[in-house]
């Protein structure tokens, strides 16, 4: 039996919520793209990570329907799980750091898959959206809760045919929003997940941080 770590990434201040993530520590058990895609579809998490080299942080990321060069919550979760300072997804080298209860990564906005960032007039309007709203493109719906303080209310809708109706916490979308607004953000997403962001040490990088917890799960084969 292979071991799977299931995490919740970007948990709220009370340790609840967060986006589920599957991490296969020994990627050799799934040696090709077809077997990895099949497992990711079977698990049904927003993303599943396969660790190909734990020492160098080389990882491979899959949604239930496709392979990704970069994704935020898988890299934050894997950096926390393996206590990494560098994670290497296909997009490029991602620096990680651990600061108290938060794990942070530094990445480039250009690595994030495209999303439509749509601002609404109020957090109540975001809360009232059906899941998913009508439309076809990946939607990140957001509104200011407190603009002066950088507090944002957000929800994310992949709107693709892979069983993920609403994404609970989306690091890549938070990265894009931070790049667009050019400022640090404190994002409450989904049912109560929290994502912190800040401009990175270089002009073209963004930091994304959050809490990670283990999630209980059943054995699998």
Summarize the structure.
The chain folds into 2 domains: 4-92, Diaminopimelate Epimerase, Chain A, domain 1 (Roll), CATH 3.10.310; 116-209, Roll (Diaminopimelate Epimerase, Chain A, domain 1). With 221 residues, it is an alpha+beta fold. Strands 1, 2, 3, 4, 5, 6, 7, 8, 9, 10, 11, 12, 13 and 14 form a 14-stranded mixed β-sheet that branches.
Please, could you describe this protein's structure?
The protein is α+β, with helices and mostly antiparallel strands. The chain folds into two domains: 4-92, Diaminopimelate Epimerase, Chain A, domain 1 (Roll), CATH 3.10.310; 116-209, Diaminopimelate Epimerase, Chain A, domain 1, CATH 3.10.310.10. It has four helices and 14 strands. It has helices spanning 33-43, 72-82, 123-127, 171-181, and strands spanning 4-11, 19-24, 47-53, 58-62, 67-68, 86-87, 94-99, 102-108, 116-119, 139-146, 151-157, 185-189, 193-199, 205-214. Strands 1, 2, 3, 4, 5, 6, 7, 8, 9, 10, 11, 12, 13 and 14 form a 14-stranded mixed β-sheet that branches. The radius of gyration is 16 Å and the shape is globular. The N and C termini lie close together (5 Å). The mean pLDDT is 95.
Q: Using DSSP, what is the number of strands? A: 14
Helices and strands, in N-to-C order? EEHEEEHEEEEHEEHEEE
What is the typical, i.e. mean, pLDDT?
95
Radius of gyration: 16 Å
Number of structural units classed as domains? 2
Largest sheet: 14 strands, mixed
Termini separation = 5 Å
Low-confidence stretches: none
Strand % is 35-45%
**Count of alpha and pi helical runs:** 4
Helical content band: 10-25%
What is the level-2 CATH architecture name of the largest domain? Roll
CATH topology (level 3) name of the largest domain: Diaminopimelate Epimerase, Chain A, domain 1
Structure classification: alpha+beta
């Amino acid at each position: 039996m292979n071991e799977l770590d299931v995490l919740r990434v970007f948990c709220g201040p009370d340790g609840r919520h967060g986006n589920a993530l599957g991490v296969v520590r020994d990627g050799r058990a799934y040696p090709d793209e077809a077997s990895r895609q099949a497992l990711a579809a079977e698990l049904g998490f927003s993303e599943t990570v396969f660790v190909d080299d734990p020492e160098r942080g080389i990882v491979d990321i899959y949604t239930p329907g496709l392979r990704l060069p970069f994704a935020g919550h898988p890299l934050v979760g894997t950096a926390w799980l393996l206590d990494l300072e560098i994670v290497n997804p296909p997009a490029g080298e991602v620096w990680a750091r651990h600061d108290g209860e938060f794990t942070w990564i530094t990445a480039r906005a250009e690595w994030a898959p495209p999303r439509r960032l749509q601002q609404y007039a109020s957090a109540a309007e975001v809360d009232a959206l059906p899941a998913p709203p009508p439309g076809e493109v990946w939607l990140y719906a957001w509104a200011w809760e407190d603009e002066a303080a950088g507090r944002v209310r957000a929800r994310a809708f992949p709107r693709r045919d892979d069983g993920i109706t609403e994404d609970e916490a989306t690091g890549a979308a938070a990265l894009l929003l931070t790049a667009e607004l050019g400022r640090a953000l404190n994002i409450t997403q989904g049912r109560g997940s929290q994502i912190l962001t800040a401009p990175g040490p270089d002009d073209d990088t963004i930091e994304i941080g959050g809490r990670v917890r283990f999630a209980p799960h059943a054995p699998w084969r």
